[in-house]
Prior knowledge:
alpha/beta, Urease, subunit C, domain 1, TIM Barrel, 2 domains, 14 helices, 17 strands, 21% strand, binds zinc ion
Amino acid sequence: MSTLITGIGELTTNDPSVHGDALVIEGSTIAWVGTGSPAADTRIDVGGRAVLPGWVDSHTHLVFAGDRTAEFGARMAGKPYSAGGIAVTVGATRAASDDDLSAVVSRHVAEAVAQGTTFIETKTGYGLTVADELRSAVVAGSHADEVTFLGAHLVPPGADADEYVSLVCGEMLDAVAPHVRWADVFCETGAFDEDQSRAVLTAAAGRGLGLRVHGNQLGLGPGVRLAVELGAASVDHCTYLSQSDVDALAASDTVATLLPACDLSTRQPLPEARKLLDAGVTVALASNCNPGSSYTSSIAFCVATAVLQMRMSVEEAVRAATLGGAQALRRDDVGVIRLGARADVHVLDAPSITHLAYRPGVPLTHAVWRKGVQVI
Length: 376
Ligand SMILES: [Zn+2]
């Protein structure tokens, strides 16, 4: 079964050697891209609309229960954000059934897909016991494309930090590792310090997991340096960076994943994207969708913010939210439109990607193919 999408007004492929005004989807992959009208079982004319790869959201926390509206309201009234708010979600998540958690993840993935996200990573991290982290990983894996173990999200209230790190590095990793590809740590004041973060990441690497780091969100710190040193695929937040952090990222394969919706929602400054890009750092944009610090699944909102407030070009922002996300997950089959790539295709109800920033807040998703299936 093949589908020809034709009449493309502007095609963003993220591959400089691939151009055209039409493409063919066959099964779950892109079978052809070019100019013309090859034979196909079905033909869809998109009438001059812009087509781009589906968003790759490389950073979300969707396995949760409960609500933090009150905390958000308090923050907007002037109370500062701190890492400890996570504990509220931990209590609600532990109390929820597997079915309840699954319904929450499913609903939010569907919400993201409806806005053009076709590849989504999500994390554990609101269980913080062996049993709750394990079931969080299993639930995540039944809905998301990539799953990350974030047992080192917060020391659970009442627990001893060093004992908890030992649990994460031992029994918890043993239980969860078979169900995840990645491990992550929240390396931040109020969460885990450099030595604790290093212990968690080293233990995870020893079990064959890829590494990611939450770092430099609330102030300068060791997160970026540690991520680069240990060869992490991505260091996420990067709101506060020293020049040596920028230099270290530029000389590494570690992607700087920026989460501007989180910085807005916590009233932090926005990351210095321009400085990173000008230094040659690979940048990704992701939603950080979670109930505490960034409750949005809209990558279009992140792209508009990156352009309007972080001085990224539209092309840079779209690339960061597609190919950049794929690079942050070390995937070469998504975030691009070319022969053999996964058929994740986003059609905008607009003639160009510029409209994502020119018309901020306007829902512009017209059609979406995910793994070759038209879902919107
Ligand atoms: Zn996060």
